[in-house]
Amino acid sequence: MASPTNQRKTVVEMLLEANLLTRDQLLHAQDAQRKSGHRIEDVLVEEQLVDPEQVALLSSLQLGVPFVNLKKQEVDPRAVELVPESICRQHVVVPLQVQDSSLTVAMQDPGNILVVDTLAAQTRKRIDPVYALTEDILEAIDINYRVSGEIEKQLSQLPTFQGIDESESQLSAEAIAQAPVVRIVDLVIRQGARDRASDIHIEPQEDGLRVRFRIDGILHEVMTLPLNVHSALLSRIKIMAGLNIAERRRSQDGQITFKDGERTLDIRVATSNTVNGEMAVLRLLDKTFAFLTLPELGFLPSPLERYRQMLKTPFGMVLISGPTGSGKTTTLYASVNQLDSVGRNIISIEDPVEYHFDSINQMQVNVQAGVTFSTGLRACMRLDPDVILVGEIRDGETAQIAAQAALTGHLVLSSVHANDSLGVIYRLIDLGVEPFLVASSVIGIIAQRMVRRICNNCSHMAAVSMEEQLSFEREMGERRTQFLYGDGCNVCAQTGYLGRSGIYEVMILSEDIRRMILDNEPADAIRAQAIEEGMISLWRDGMNKVQSGLTTPYEIIRNVFTAA
Question: 104 - beta bridge partners?
Answer without folding.
Answer: 97, 128
